[in-house]
């Protein structure tokens, strides 16, 4: 799956193990949960090795909003439908949108 040059408009999940959090795209939450097709694709998913690493990412991003937990079944559906683009978090290498 090819990503657009500018990914700032795409919904973004953060993942540790089988736990998922909506980090960006709250305005699309209902459509994502209810299989609506009115949200930008793909949904990005940044995978972290630890909750500490994810917490540091959130702190560095300056996120002030509450992040929604997402059921793993929803993420499985996004994967099956080809709507999820997963990225391994690598701090400092510029690979994370």
- Rg over alpha carbons: 13 Å
Structural classification? alpha/beta
| Helical stretch tally | 3
The total tally of domains equals 1
The largest pleated sheet is described as:
5 strands, mixed
Query: Hey, roughly how much beta strand do the residues contain?
Result: 25-35%
In angstroms, what separates the terminal alpha carbons?
15 Å
Can you walk through the features of this model?
The protein is of the alpha/beta class. The chain has one domain (12-88). The protein is 26% helix and 26% strand. The chain has helices at 29-33, 51-61, 72-80; strands at 12-16, 19-24, 43-48, 68-70, 84-88. The protein has a five-stranded mixed beta sheet with strand order 4-2-1-3-5. It starts with 11 loop residues before the first strand and ends in a 9-residue tail after the last strand.
Summarize the structure.
By secondary structure, this protein is α/β, with parallel strands linked by helices. The protein contains three helices and five strands. The longest helix has 11 residues, at 51-61.
